[in-house]
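Replying to the earlier thread about multi-chain prediction with a worked example.

Input:
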Amino acid sequence: GIQVEQSPPDLILQEGANSTLRCNFSDSVNNLQWFHQNPWGQLINLFYIPSGTKQNGRLSATTVATERYSLLYISSSQTTDSGVYFCAVINYGGSQGNLIFGKGTKLSVKP
Amino acid sequence: EAQVTQNPRYLITVTGKKLTVTCSQNMNHEYMSWYRQDPGLGLRQIYYSMNVEVTDKGDVPEGYKVSRKEKRNFPLILESPSPNQTSLYFCASSLGGISGIGTQYFGPGTRLLVL
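Result:
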């Protein structure tokens, strides 16, 4: 099945710094989403982005489907950005309800 | 308020005692899904439902059952729980339809401990 790899696995930033999180996938996808799990365990959808670029405040995401990767940019990071960031995909040739998650990037933003 | 609710939020049980975790959404979503989250393994899909009476296995369905008799509810059933089903469980829903499952909205999670 499709493989989803996220990097880096861990990231420590000083408040105000910028960062880029990467999600690589091994096959064609027709659904890609980014999620943030906060330190209390709540999962929040950040972007639905199977292709192209989107921005929402300090966060933006770009998916280059032909090259099988997606990037999540966090600018001017804040302590509230801490948590784990997951990307998840649906394989274009697979079951269309089967959402596959990467193992996540754990982000810690220090004040 | 648009939301996905799960009950119970915390549960301690013993091996073999049947249990049900309920999931309900009030957004008229067609797609619903269950995931489990374990340290080092991330989130893995257990079962999903594209619409009422339509369910399918995810990546780790063994030991679980689901049903989708009505649009808003998608309960997860553990007929004979075992300690390896100790985990954090999430239900999610999304609009679904011909354009694909769309943006996922997650419930608050259910922490299950099987002794």
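The radius of gyration of chain B is 13 Å.

Feel free to reuse this layout for your own posts.
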